[in-house]
TrEMBL record:
Species: Parnassius mnemosyne (clouded apollo)
Protein known as: Reverse transcriptase domain-containing protein
Domain Reverse transcriptase: 2-163
PANTHER family to which the protein is assigned, alphabetical: REVERSE TRANSCRIPTASE DOMAIN-CONTAINING PROTEIN, TRANSPOSON TY3-I GAG-POL POLYPROTEIN
GO BP terms in the entry: DNA biosynthetic process
Domain of life: Eukaryota
Length: 163
């Protein structure tokens, strides 16, 4: 993780315990147990879309593609003054995260705001945290929609999972 720039050695006076969370595919996700930090974090009230809102907007669409954003949270830089707050303690020392990591109280809302800004004006793509749904009325339009979304993601340095 250090070689990939995901975490860096830290000398932070703050730290959270190391925590492993199972992923859908059975692998383990490394993150901090940020309950103490989260308890003093001001909540971000940015809305996460409700499924009923999405289903209403999809009723006239017939072609769909799902795009999964690769390590979505880690594509967001943490503000310099907040990086030390992300420190975790391990048997090998303290490590901090220069990019957003799962487990932080406002990670979902922060990413939702970011992806909405990136996709602003594209009424055929629906973002739900790290999943994007591209919906179109027909195949030809769908190909154009996909190219537009992929270009917008590339222009903003967002990588996707190749599946």
């Amino acid at each position: 993780m250090i070689e990939q720039g995901i975490c860096l050695p830290s000398k932070s006076p703050l730290s959270s315990p190391l925590h492993f969370v199972p992923k859908k595919n059975g692998e383990l996700r490394v993150c901090g147990d940020y309950r103490r930090l989260n308890s003093i974090t001001t909540p971000d009230r940015y809305p996460i879309p409700q499924v009923k809102y999405l289903t209403h907007r999809l009723s006239d669409k017939t072609i769909f593609s799902n795009i999964d954003i690769n390590r979505a949270y880690q594509q967001i830089k943490v503000r310099d003054e907040d990086i030390e707050k992300t420190a975790i303690i391990t048997q090998m020392g303290l490590f901090k995260f220069p990019r957003m990591t799962p487990g932080l109280k406002n990670a979902g809302q922060t990413f939702q705001r970011f992806i909405h800004e990136v996709l602003h004006g594209l009424d055929f793509v629906f973002a739900f945290i790290d999943d994007l749904l591209v919906a179109s009325p027909d195949k030809e339009t769908h190909e154009t929609h996909l190219r537009t979304v992929l270009q917008r993601l590339e222009d903003n340095g967002i990588t996707i999972n190749p599946s």
